[in-house]
Amino acid sequence: MTNLIAAAAFFVLIHLLISGTRVRDGLVARIGLGPYMGLFVVLSWIGLVWLGFGFAQARSAPGNDVFWGLNTGTRHLQLALQLVAVAFIVIGLSTPNPTSVRQEGALDRPGLVRGMLRVTRHPFLWGVAIWAVGHLIVNGDMASLILFGSMLALALFGTASIDAKRQRALGGKWDAFAAQTSNVPFAAIFQGRQKFSLGEIGWWRFALALVVWAALAWGHPYFTGVAALP
Q1: Distance between CA atoms of 137 and 208, rounded to whole angstroms?
Q2: What phi and psi, each to the nearest 5 degrees, are found at residue 118?
């Protein structure tokens, strides 16, 4: 279990204490953006692989206590949450967004705030957060709490971290964008700063998300050893 905790701490901290702070600014100034991005990608992959091996090891360890189990109701709830999560992730990855890596220039596009950006300026990270919550509901063992709990924390704190990083780098441009959007999904719409437009998101994105969700649900036992479908 200690190995998994160390891996989770490493992965979360390189994102929140390096990528999301002025430490990143200092490293970029010293070694350049390209080398920094390359180094960070390598560290991130090391962290992911370490997490994977640590999780597999911890699940079969004697100290992996189980606090709650799976039942029919939570299995169906999990499937529904994963559909929402995949939709946020797929739509987020396919939508131009200045919060995404190397897409700061999107702020110069006229009419940028449309579609999913009316809902949240962090669709990908909120998708990851929903994905993590769904897995926590159906996995009550200690190893899963560490893995999916750390992913949930990273996703939620990551939204604020990116906002701060973009504000430092982009100043007034970012402030104008942030004033039109919200971090929390649908908050800007409920506050009257935006209007929801399903058509702007694009039906092909919803169709793609459905295909990805179905493929993941069907293939789950082949790459995790655990069936996702009832």
Answers
A1: 25
A2: -70, -25
Three-state SS for 161-200 is HHHHHHHHHHCHHHHHHHHHCCCCCCHHHHCCCCCCCHHH
Residue carrying the six token digits 């797929």: 90
Helix (H, G, I), strand (E, B) or coil at 96: coil
Provide the whole-model pTM.
Answer: 0.92
According to DSSP, the residues that pair with 66 across neighbouring strands are 141
Per-residue pLDDT reduced to its tens digit, 119-163: 999 999 999 999 999 999 999 999 999 999 999 999 999 999 999
Q: Which two tokens stand for residue 178?
A: 């942030």
Please, is 179 exposed, middle or buried when counting C-beta atoms within 10 Å of its C-beta (0-12, 13-18, 19+)?
A: exposed
Query: Is 201 within 8 Å of 116 (Cβ atoms)?
Result: yes
Q: Are 156 and 77 in contact (CB under 8 A)?
A: no
Give the separation between CA 42 and CA 130, rounded to whole angstroms.
Answer: 26
Amino acid at 201: I
Contact at 8 Å (CB) between 18 and 154? no
The CA-atom distances, in angstroms, between 59 and each of 123, 173, 219 are 30, 46, 21
